[in-house]
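Sequence in, structure out.
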Amino acid sequence: MLRRLLYRNFRLIHRLSQWLRDRLTPGGGLIFGGLVAAGIFGIDTRQTLAFQLFALTASLLLVAMLGSIMFRSRFRLQRRLPACATAGTPLRYRVRVENSGPRPQKDLLLIDELESAFPDYAEFRNSRDPQDARRNWVDRLIGYPRLVTLLRHRRGGSIPVRAVPAIPPFDRTDLDVEFTPLRRGYLRFAALRLARPDPLGLFRGMRRFATRESLLVLPRTYRIPRLQLAGGRQYLQGGMTLVSHIGDSQEFLSLRDYQPGDPLRAIHWRSYAKRGKPIVKEFQDEYFVRQGLVLDTFLDDGPNEVFEEAVSVAASFQLAIEQQDSLTDLIFVEDVARRLTSGRGLDSTAHMLEMLACVQPCRDRPFSELADLLLQHRRDLSTLILVLLRWDAPRRELVRRLEDAGVPVGVFVINTADTAAAPEPGSPAQRPRQFVTLTAGRIQQDLDAVDWQDLQQ
């Protein structure tokens, strides 16, 4: 009950502090600090004259607030975002500010506002902050710094305030804005705001322009060489229609007499009309390479850092797997089990990366859903890459059954730096084609040490 009450107060405190940061100039913040101090020490007017300082600072701030109301100029603002961005990589875009009034405008500040929806109490209570280990026990117990970190992550970044050069009447200027997205997924831009200090320079007047836009932030990726995975071609009935002319071409082979059981759509009607008896067409069966990329989303109570690294590794493989004459199935479980196929004539790699950018951990479903999906489609797959969050009995059993079915499997397990020991692949008889442990925080170094020939033999 006490924690829930504290959480409600946190919301009020955060909104008030955000409003003060936006509205008060550095000088105004100093005056406001004096106002608070004078209010504390000037309660007893018979013992101290601090109440006089309180009255003076309050009057200054009140006059400044009234002066800020005069900011009523006309503007037009337009944001120009790129097609997409990458988490952890600086993003630069342009904002056009147009002065639509007859007076020159100066001393303006541009504030770009990202959506910052408050988490519910359950999400706040279950959230983890890696920085808690470096904080004192009071901050860890109360949890307000954790709320600030969670809000910053949900917002997706912190856009710095930009000073706007003086704009002549009926003129415009373009500003370059740069910040670094903190997470993958969609960033929601809520509004652009223009601020200008009052004549005393203490309080900012604010104009808000609703310019709602979204920007897709792709997961960060690592360097992996272009891979042509091992594995033989598989047959798929009706493959030509499904794979859009990928693999061995289903070209016309010959004509032959009709035999009972031949489908009517295979009849060559011109030959039938010419010879007076049914003639059917023969085609070559469709065989092609179909590769599987599996992302383990079953996080349970593990650290979110491991899941984010797993998504980045999966995105890196999606870019690295050579798809010129093959298909790639991206397989994972979220709210439902998903199997998305990319390749020439089908879905694009860009759409696969978009799906990975938005994927969320699965905490309320069993791992058996993913295992059943893979075993059901094992005959369609030439080879598999599994990006796993741990190496336990259900995952070892899945790999064993896939290997027994003749599907070459490469396993990449994401590990944490504080784990006592890296997981072992098991006995040599049950060991997958390639077993690699990747440590969160040094993924690229571990990938550089991998012998990729094992996956391509």
